[in-house]
Amino acid sequence: MLRRSGHGQQRIRQRHRRKGIEVKIGEDGILVDVYVVVEYGIRIRAVAESIQNSVKFHIERTLGQPVKAVNVYVQGLRMTEEEKEVKSKK
């Protein structure tokens, strides 16, 4: 996982990564944080928007309560062995 800093990019240690889903229920609605790893070559924005829409729809439909926000955090990219080999040859 990389994060931007004043000195370029830095690798975030594995222990700082989160996994799964966190849900917070407040008086003004439900807040959901989703942590994912995306496959290399997939459009990250499209995946994130799809997750947001699906989670929001299903929670509101099931619980009948408004969802304030669904935040999607991409924790990393997953590459197949073939993709790793191709990238290392470049």
Provide structural commentary:
The protein has helices spanning 44-63, 81-89; strands at 2-5, 8-11, 20-26, 29-39, 67-78. The protein has 90 residues and is of the alpha+beta class. It has one domain (18-89): Macrophage Migration Inhibitory Factor. A three-stranded mixed beta sheet has the order 3-4-5, covered by helices on one side. The chain has a two-stranded antiparallel sheet with strand order 1-2. Helix 1 links the parallel strand 4 and strand 5. The chain starts with a strand and ends with a helix.
CATH architecture heading: 2-Layer Sandwich
| Principal-axis shape | elongated
List the domain count as a whole number: 1
Order of helices and strands: EEEEHEH
Mean of residue pLDDT? 81
Distance between the termini: 22 Å
Q: What's the alpha carbon Rg, rounded to whole Å?
A: 16 Å
Could you tell me the number of beta strands?
5
- Contiguous runs where pLDDT drops below 50 for at least 5 residues: 1-13
Major sheet description = 3 strands, mixed
CATH class: Alpha Beta
* CATH topological fold name: Macrophage Migration Inhibitory Factor
Throw out a few tags for this protein.
disordered N terminus; Macrophage Migration Inhibitory Factor; three-stranded mixed sheet; 90 residues
Could you outline the blueprint of secondary structure elements for this entry?
Elements: E1 2-5, E2 8-11, E3 20-26, E4 29-39, H1 44-63, E5 67-78, H2 81-89
Parallel strand pairs: 4-5
Antiparallel strand pairs: 1-2, 3-4
